[in-house]
Design goal:
By secondary structure, this protein is α+β, with helices and mostly antiparallel strands. The termini are far apart.
Length: 198
């Protein structure tokens, strides 16, 4: 029974706190007396202030504007616009501004204060951690037995080609190019000296 009374008391107090947060102090334009006015909920703005005889009049935010909090402002806030190299992930609504993030291939740089293009890994390097909207790609030298022959912000190192049983490596692979294999016959054709018939 005591627990039930305590719970009821807490609920009543919570309701009072909620009501206080949704009210603001105003002044009656006729008498000059202080009045407690209702705030407007998110998605609306204060069209007309309250008086001693009438409560606040709220109105929906027009298209292209919003309010995200309980308020008593005279006009809604203008919806934001995504910046350069950004894309909209959620459109603006009456009670929430739009959400933006960097486009694919860009990340947000705190230093620049904008989305900048991912850095690219040089030949002989590969991406070890992909770029995201808030981080650039991480590059590292290709390990032994792997290579990367392109400048890229997304490619990883690839394993060297393994020559088959009837082939041999005529060019050994390194970090920036693959191994080149050839059959014995192809190797002879490539290495056979040209005869000069002149």
């Amino acid at each position: 029974m005591l627990l039930l009374l305590l719970l009821q008391l807490l609920l009543q107090q919570g309701g009072q706190i909620c009501c206080v947060e949704e009210m603001f102090r105003g002044v009656d334009p006729v008498s000059g007396a202080e009045v407690m006015c209702h705030q407007c909920p998110p998605g609306q703005f204060l069209r007309q202030r309250c008086t001693a005889a009438q409560q606040s009049v709220c109105e929906d935010c027009p298209p292209g504007s919003f309010t995200a909090l309980w308020n008593h402002i005279s006009r809604c806030l203008r919806c934001g616009v995504c910046g350069r190299n950004m894309e909209e992930t959620r459109s603006c609504s009456r009670d929430r501004d739009c959400d933006c993030q960097c486009k694919h291939g860009y990340f947000y740089s705190q230093r620049a204060g904008m989305c900048v293009r991912w850095s690219e890994c040089a030949t002989g390097q590969g991406v070890t951690a992909p770029g995201e909207t808030r981080t650039k790609p991480v590059c590292a030298l290709c390990a032994n037995g792997t290579f990367s022959d392109q400048v890229s912000s997304e490619s990883t190192c690839s394993a060297h080609k393994t020559c088959s049983a009837h082939e041999k490596a005529i060019i050994k692979g390194n970090s920036w190019h693959d191994a080149v294999c050839a059959t014995c016959q192809e190797d002879q054709i490539k290495t056979k000296p040209r005869l000069n018939h002149d």
